[in-house]
Write a structure and sequence with these properties.
The chain is of the alpha/beta class. Helix content is 35%, strand content 19%. The protein has helices spanning 97-104, 162-179, 194-210, 231-236, 239-248, 254-257, 261-281, 288-302, 306-311, 318-324, 356-376, 404-414, 433-443, 468-485, and strands at 12-16, 22-26, 29-39, 42-56, 62-73, 84-88, 107-109, 123-125, 135-139, 148-149, 187-192, 216-220, 332-333, 341-342, 419-425, 453-458.
C-alpha cells in the first residue's frame, strides 16, 4: 500500500556540531506514503506526510525547521467539516513519538497489554486510532525529534521559554494550516504533560495573534498550568494519588483493599479537602492528639506507617513515597507510572536511583520511532531523533511566566465553541490525577464555564494509553468529545 513520493527540497542548511561533524537538515521537505488501518472493525485508508516546515522570524527569515507527520484520511474529499487534531508532547524537550505511536496515530508501538517492552521492536496497526474521525498532525518543537534551529547563532531565547515556545509554534501552525488548506476545518489541540502547558497557551495565542479559533483542547496528564497551589494544598493534594498507588500494590488495610478503586478515592478526596489541608495549615500549632489522628488516617489511606508520616510532620514528599512504599519488598516505584518497579543499589535512602517507568518506555519507543519514520514513512535522514532533546535552560520568568491556565480560561470565555477535556491516570505521580481535578476547578473561578470542562480518569499512569484497556476507553472518550464539540449546522458561537 505504501507509495513513496520524491522528496521535495526548497532549502538545505547544515547544522554544525561541536565535534565538527555536519549533518543535513531539510528546512522544507515532504515525503508522502499511502496506507490503511482497520479501526473499530472498519478499513480506513490514509495518506501520511512526513516533512519539515520552516520557522520564520519577524523579518521573514528562516531560523529553524520543525519536523512533523501529518495523517489525512484519503477517502474524505471534503475537509470543511472534518476535524484536524494538532498534537504536542511535553518535556519540554519530549518528542511527539509518545502520542504518535502510542496513542492516537494509525500505528502503535510493540508492547504487551500493560505497556511493557517486547522484542522484536517495531510498530503494529492501532485499532483504536482516532484517524477514523479526525486528521492528525504531530509536531516536533525545536530540539525534539528531527527539529532544529538552522545554526548555533540563533538565540535559544527564541524557542526555550513558556511564552516564546507558544509564540513561535502559533506562527508555525498558521503557516501549516494555510499550506494544507485546513482553515475551514474544526480544529483541536491535544497535549500531554508539558504539552498541556503548551496547548493551553496556544489556545489564546492562536485566537488573539492568528485569529484561529478552536473547537476543543484535550489535556493529557496536565501540569499545573500556572495555577497557584502552594503550601498546605500542594502537600495535601498528593494523598489521593498515594491511595490509588497503594491500592494497586495491595498494601492498603484489608477493608479498603477489597473495595474498588472508584469507591475508595472519593472518600480520600473528601478527607484531603476537609481535614488534611486544614491540619497542615496549622503547622506546629496543630494539637498533638489531632496530629496523631490525621497521621493515622493518612497511614490508612497511603500504605505508609503512621510513624513515618509523623516523622514528616504530615508532609510526605512524593520522592520519599516512591522509595518507601515497597521498601520492605526491595523495590522502588515509578514516578510517571507507579505500577512500574525498579531496583536500587541500596534499600536505604529517601528517593529512587532512577525512573523505572521512563527507562522502560524509552526501551520500547526509541527503536520503534526510528524504524517507523525511516522504513514505513520513508523519511531518510542521518539526524539523531531526539526522543528527549536539550531545551535547558527553559525560561519561566518575566515575559515567560506561566499563566497558561488563565490563557485557556480567556480563550474559552472569548470563544463559546471551545470545550476542554482533561485525561489523567490514577497512578501518575508526576502530574497526578487529583491536581488535574484541582486545575479544572480553578481554571475558571466564576464557575460560568464549568459546563465546557470535563475530566476523565484511567487505571494506569502518565501515558494511560499504554494499557490496552485504557487505550480503548480513552480514545472512545476523544470520539465522544469530538461529537459533543462539533456544532450543529447553522449553530452560531454566541452566549
Amino acid at each position: 500500500m505504501k507509495q513513496p513520493i520524491t522528496l521535495f527540497l526548497i532549502y538545505l542548511v547544515t547544522l554544525t556540531f561541536s565535534s565538527a561533524q555536519t549533518r543535513s537538515l531539510k528546512l522544507d521537505s515532504d515525503v508522502v506514503t499511502n496506507d490503511q488501518v482497520t479501526i473499530k472493525g472498519k478499513v480506513v485508508p490514509y495518506k501520511a506526510t512526513a516533512g519539515t516546515q520552516p520557522v520564520w522570524d519577524e523579518n521573514g527569515k528562516p531560523i529553524a525547521s520543525l519536523f512533523y507527520v501529518y495523517y489525512e484520511r484519503s477517502d474524505v474529499s471534503d475537509k470543511t467539516t472534518r476535524p484536524l487534531f494538532i498534537s504536542f508532547n511535553g518535556g519540554p524537550g519530549a518528542a511527539s513519538c509518545w502520542m504518535h505511536i502510542g496513542y492516537t496515530g494509525p500505528k502503535r508501538v510493540m508492547t504487551d497489554s500493560e505497556g511493557y517492552p517486547m522484542q522484536p521492536y517495531g510498530v503494529r496497526d492501532n485499532p483504536n486510532s482516532i484517524l477514523d474521525v479526525a486528521d492528525i498532525v504531530y509536531v516536533e518543537p525545536v530540539n525534539t525529534g528531527f527539529s532544529r534551529a538552522i545554526n548555533d547563532s540563533i538565540p535559544k531565547s527564541k524557542f526555550f521559554g513558556v511564552n516564546a515556545d507558544i509564540k513561535y509554534l502559533a506562527e508555525w501552525l498558521n503557516v501549516f494550516v494555510g499550506r494544507k488548506n485546513r482553515w475551514p476545518s474544526p480544529k483541536y489541540l491535544i497535549g500531554e504533560s508539558y504539552g498541556t502547558t503548551r496547548v493551553s497557551g496556544l489556545a489564546l495565542e492562536l485566537q488573539n495573534a492568528n485569529w484561529m479559533y478552536l473547537n476543543g483542547v484535550i489535556l493529557v496528564s496536565p501540569t499545573d498550568l500556572g495555577i497557584e497551589r502552594g503550601g498546605p494544598i500542594e502537600a495535601a493534594n498528593l494523598l489521593p494519588y498515594y491511595s490509588a498507588t497503594a491500592w494497586y500494590h495491595k498494601v492498603l488495610a484489608a477493608d479498603l483493599q477489597k473495595k474498588d478503586l472508584n469507591d475508595i478515592l472519593p472518600e480520600v478526596e473528601q478527607f484531603t479537602i476537609n481535614e488534611l489541608v486544614p491540619a497542615i495549615t496549622r503547622g506546629g500549632f496543630l494539637e498533638p492528639e489531632k496530629k496523631k489522628q490525621i497521621a493515622a488516617k493518612m497511614a490508612r489511606y497511603s500504605g505508609l506507617s503512621e510513624k513515618v508520616i509523623l516523622e514528616h510532620n504530615l508532609i510526605v514528599p512524593s520522592t520519599f513515597y516512591w522509595k518507601e512504599l515497597l521498601r520492605d519488598k526491595g523495590y522502588q516505584i515509578g514516578r510517571l507510572d507507579s505500577r512500574y518497579l525498579g531496583i536500587d543499589r541500596e534499600t536505604a535512602g529517601d528517593r529512587p536511583d532512577y525512573a523505572a517507568e521512563y527507562t522502560s518506555w524509552q526501551h520500547s519507543f526509541t527503536p520503534a520511532i526510528n524504524y517507523y519514520l525511516r522504513q514505513h514513512l520513508n523519511y531518510k535522514t542521518d539526524l539523531k531523533y531526539y526522543i528527549a532533546g536539550q531545551t535547558r535552560p527553559w525560561d519561566r520568568d518575566g515575559a515567560n511566566a506561566d499563566r497558561t491556565g488563565e490563557n485557556l480560561r480567556q480563550a474559552m470565555a472569548q470563544n463559546p465553541y471551545l470545550h476542554v477535556m482533561i485525561q489523567s491516570g490514577y497512578f501518575d505521580g508526576a502530574t497526578d490525577y487529583f491536581n488535574a481535578k484541582f486545575n479544572m476547578w480553578h481554571i475558571d473561578p466564576s464557575g460560568k464555564l464549568k459546563s465546557r470542562l470535563d475530566w476523565k480518569g484511567y487505571r494506569s499512569g502518565h501515558m494511560m494509553y499504554l494499557r490496552d484497556e485504557d487505550m480503548a476507553t480513552s480514545t472512545d472518550d476523544i470520539r465522544t468529545f469530538i461529537q459533543k464539540t462539533l456544532p450543529k449546522p447553522n449553530q452560531p458561537a454566541k452566549y
